[in-house]
Every structure is written in structure tokens, then in C-alpha cells.
Amino acid sequence: MSAPETFTLGGDLEVRRLGFGAMRITGPGVWGEPDDPAAARLLLRRVVEAGVNLIDTADSYGPEVSENLIAEALHPYPEGLVIATKGGLTRPGPGRWEPNCRPERLKRCCEDSLRRLKLERIDVYQLHTVDRKVPIEDSIAALAELQAEGKIRHVGVSNVGGEELERARAIVEIVSVQNRYNLTDRSSEEVLGVCERDGLGFVPFFPLATGNLARSGGMLDQVGRAHGATPAQVALAWLIGHSPVILPIPGTSSIEHFEENLQAAQLELSDSEAEALAQATS
Ligand SMILES: NC(=O)c1ccc[n+]([C@@H]2O[C@H](COP(=O)([O-])OP(=O)(O)OC[C@H]3O[C@@H](n4cnc5c(N)ncnc54)[C@H](OP(=O)(O)O)[C@@H]3O)[C@@H](O)[C@H]2O)c1
User: Fold this and answer.
1) For the whole model, what pTM was predicted?
2) What's the maximum distance between 2 C-alpha atoms anywhere in the chain?
């Protein structure tokens, strides 16, 4: 049976199951402007033109750069485009990420994202991480307040374990979880199971293991050859086939790679191929 083409987030946001991760449109180390901002804007326009309607970003990508580019390239936004952004990480420098999920800071971050994205309400606002210095209940309560004020439509979480997810869900409805997950890292399988059981979207970050799965040979190449597909396409197709709640958001700075990744949504692996890939890469 072929995998469903769309998933409905929070009961009212229907998205295609292959989204776009907008972290790679920034400078090296996810820091500063990209070398060619015009090319990044062109890529974003192509993403939407190709029918992708889930774009993942965060205030910390750049910082600010990814959200600014999205607004510059795409505002006014087409009907049905879901921009999922995040708050909760600070950026002291390139490649450095430090949590700060204090309620007052999250509220400020959300206001800043609204301004940068030129939105009155953010469709999906995700707590980027769990700050060990702040109970997750306090961070999530801040997002619940923003939701009550109409500034957030739905709340998501990221980088959470099963217990943290439950604690968050006790405060407010959580519609999605964004955790690291790909063929070679399935440590979030249990959280994925909860998402499947309860109909939450599961957004796997590093779906290509930061590009390694696009390069890797072996079983990915073997399965790809049988379908005329590249290893990156096989890795993404495996995710899409693995669970109907999975919404991969491969990140790229290149239109060519984007087009390649998009084709993965059409690639159907057999059960035995999917199983062989899971065995070979675990
Ligand atoms: N919640 C979190 O904590 C968190 C953490 C990390 C990422 N994320 C989100 O998840 C998204 C995806 O993660 P990611 O971008 O880090 O990792 P990824 O999608 O696993 O891999 C991206 C890397 O793979 C390369 N690539 C993409 N498509 C390719 C292809 N077809 N062939 C060869 N190479 C290819 C890209 O380089 P090119 O630019 O050269 O294509 C880029 O360096 C991010 O964009 C971001 O939105 C969230």
C-alpha cells in the first residue's frame, strides 16, 4: 500500500509529507548570511512553487537570517503554506547553541519571529529544546499563553524524550515532535510510537544524517539502483514509508538537491527493501 501523501497537523493544517528544512540557507555553521542570499530566496520560491507547504525554521538559524529570508522571498504567503518556527536556543557564535527557555525570553522570541516573518499568528511554534535550568512545564506554559493570545496556532516540541513529551502534553495540546531520526539513528523510536498512537506529527531532523546518507554506499545504493533513485531519495523514501506520521524536512542550500529530494515522495520501497535497509544501517 502506498504511503499517504499528506498529514494533518493539529486537526486543521494539511501538509504534504515532504517538507523543507530552512537551516541550510544560512552561512557556514548556521551563522550569518549565506554566500548568495538571492540564490537562497530563489530556492525558497521554488520550494513553494513545487507544492511543498511545510517549511521548518527557527529564530536561531543565522540567527534571524533564515526567518528574514523566508519573509523576503515568500511574503505575502500563499494560502496553505505552513511555517513552523522555533524558539529556545541562543547563538553565542557559529556552530554554538545554548538553551534559554525561560518563559519571558520565549515570549520575546515569539514576538520577534512574528515581526520577522510578518505574521499575525505562527502556525506551528516549537519549543526548540529542553532547558535543564527551566522546568518544561514553565516553558510550555509560556507558549500556551501565546496561543491563548492568538499569536500561535499550534504548539510543537523538539529534542524531547518520552517523559518530557508527556509533561508538555499535560500543559497544552502538542501537535508535533521534532527529534533527530534517520536510518542510522533511531533512538527516538519510542517517541515516534507515541506520535503514531496519538496522531502527532513526527518531524525527523537530520533525515539525511546531515548529508552522510546521501553519500553512503552499500544498501542505499543497491536499493536505489533497483528504482533508478539516489541514496538520498532512498533514505527519505524509507522515512516516509516507515510511519504515516513522519514528516521529513530535508535541508539544502541547492535547488538541484531540493528537486532530487522532492522526488523521494514518489518513491515506494517494498517491505523487504525497507526491512533490509533498516537491518543494514542499524
Ligand atoms: N530541532 C532541531 O534541533 C534541529 C536540528 C537540526 C536541524 N533541524 C531542522 O531539520 C532540517 C534538516 O536537517 P539538516 O538540514 O541539518 O540535515 P539533513 O537534511 O540530514 O542534511 C542536510 C545536508 O545534506 C546535504 N544534502 C541535502 N540534500 C542532498 C542531496 N540530495 N544530495 C547530497 N547532499 C544533500 C545538504 O547540503 P547542500 O546544501 O549542499 O544540499 C546539507 O549539508 C534543518 O534544515 C532544520 O530545519 C532541526
Assistant:
1) 0.98
2) 53
Q: Three cell numbers at 280?
A: 543494514
Specify the 3-state DSSP secondary structure of 76: coil
Q: Which numbered atom of ligand 1 lies nearest the CA of 213?
A: 20
At residue 4 the predicted structure's pLDDT band, cuts being 50, 70 and 90, is confident
Task: Render pLDDT for 100-152 as a digit per residue (tens, 0 to 9).
Answer: 999 999 999 999 999 999 999 999 999 999 999 999 999 999 999 999 999 99
Contact present, 224 and 230 (Cβ < 8 Å): yes
CA 236 → CA 207, 252, 272, distances in Å? Answer: 7, 13, 16
CA dist list (Å): 136 to 2, 72, 159, 160, 166: 38, 33, 12, 10, 10
What are the cell numbers at 276?
533490509
**What is the position in ligand 1's atom list of the atom closest to the CA of 207?**
20
Q: Which three cell numbers stand for residue 198?
A: 496519538
Pocket mutation for ligand 1, best pick of 188, 252, 262 (most atoms within 8 Å of C-beta): 252
- The string of pLDDT tens digits covering residues 249-262 is 999 999 999 999 99
Q: Which residue has the higher pLDDT, 78 or 216?
A: 78
